[in-house]
Specification:
The protein is mainly α and about 375 residues long. It has two domains: about 140 residues; about 160 residues, no CATH class. It has 14 helices and two strands. A two-stranded antiparallel sheet has the order 1-2. Helix 2 runs antiparallel to helix 4 and helix 11 packs antiparallel against helix 13.
């Protein structure tokens, strides 16, 4: 086979077990988090005097409160022990076939439970308003202190999201580490139709939100009644809404980078940083966090609507439609982020020297030195 023939063959990526120290840290941190949270939950359940404040006080009809009142005191402790044991088993690489599947299922069930059951829209709201507070503080725009909104229930949601992140990273790492019989497979670094469709949806939803909020700020009753518009003008709600719309629009533009070249390599025309590669984590970490928050917040809105028997009012559809589309936005952003991460991982794997070739390279270096 000639050199030209060899270069025309499709690249192949060899999937090797991952045994990084960082993965071990994820697993052990997940175990420690599970034990600590289990102890806190047990204290809340049995009502120890002087214990840390009960975090499930926000909405009586919402799922966290319902779970807190329904679970027997021993259940949180049992779940914590099972979770910690599963995390330690993953850290040590235990489990084959059925046991491996059970460990992975445990990790993903804990992750989903923490996100779907213990996370509401409060963290997303605080994240959305944080830039407004930071930018408006020097000019006295903020009506109160941002810290006034950082209540214990909100801290509890952040702690839950932290645990979900640790468990998700542990599951991904363990799946790669314990993969058996994974050989070479053809890989492509091209943007797929699924990636483009996901990005299109992840841009359309925030664009709709921004369009309606900017229209209300300008006094245009887009998708709402005149009475609804005037009420918001009198309260100043549309000014805050326009601020959130601005950040949503900026997020939509950044989402486009998940399928564009500038999302991987910064344009040359940019001063100082032009032409430099974008670190994958700089895109994937915030995108993943926003995806989780959007999905959890949107599902909470649906829970509230169901619990309170809210009916859809066609006269003010623009007030609720973008909010009810939050889960669609979150899932689409998550799919687009996975596609971006896949392409960056494949490129990095293709460019890295194979571990099988390393001894040969070391020998060549030794011969050269002699």
């Amino acid at each position: 086979m000639t050199t030209d023939q060899r270069t025309s063959v499709a690249p192949r990526v060899h999937a090797e077990p991952v045994t990084s120290r960082r993965g071990l840290i994820y697993a052990y941190l997940a175990a420690v988090w599970s034990l600590l949270y289990g102890g806190l939950s047990s204290g809340w359940a049995i009502g120890i005097p002087g214990w840390v404040a009960q975090p499930f006080e926000r909405v009586g009809s919402d799922m966290p409160s319902a779970l807190a009142s329904a679970l027997p005191p021993y259940v949180p402790a049992a779940i914590a022990l099972i979770g910690a044991g599963a995390a330690i088993a993953m850290a040590n690489g235990w489990g084959r076939s059925a046991v491996r599947s059970a460990l992975l299922a445990t990790a993903w069930v804990i992750t989903a439970g923490l996100v779907l059951a213990f996370t509401t829209e409060q963290v997303l709201i605080l994240v959305g308003y944080l830039p407004i507070y930071l930018l408006g503080a020097p000019f006295g725009w903020a009506p109160d202190s941002f810290l006034d909104h950082v209540t214990w229930p909100v801290v509890h949601e952040v702690v839950s999201l932290l645990g979900a992140g640790l468990w998700a990273m542990t599951a991904v790492w363990y799946r790669r580490r314990s993969a058996d019989g994974v050989g070479d497979h053809d890989a492509t670094t091209d943007v797929t139709r699924r990636d483009r469709a996901a990005v299109a949806v992840a841009i359309a939803v925030p664009a709709l939100y921004a369009l309606t909020r900017y229209a209300w700020l300008l006094g245009l009753p887009l998708g709402v009644t005149d009475e609804f518009l005037r009420a918001g003008q009198q309260s100043g709600a549309w000014t805050a809404g326009a601020g959130l719309a601005t950040f949503a629009a900026v997020g939509a533009v950044l989402t486009l980078g998940l399928v564009q070249r500038w999302g991987e390599v910064l344009p040359d025309r940019l001063p100082f940083v032009g032409g430099r590669a974008v670190p994958p984590a700089l895109a994937t970490v915030p995108a993943t966090a926003v995806s989780v928050l959007l999905t959890a917040a949107g599902l909470t809105m649906f829970r509230h609507a169901i619990a309170e028997a809210v009916t859809f009012d066609a006269g003010i559809w623009a007030a609720s439609a973008p909010v009810m589309l939050l889960p669609v936005w979150g899932v689409a952003l998550g799919v687009a982020t996975l596609g971006y991460r896949r392409r960056r991982h494949i490129r990095a794997t293709m460019q890295a020297p194979s571990s099988a070739d390393q001894p040969r390279h070391d020998q060549e270096d030794a011969d050269h030195e002699r």
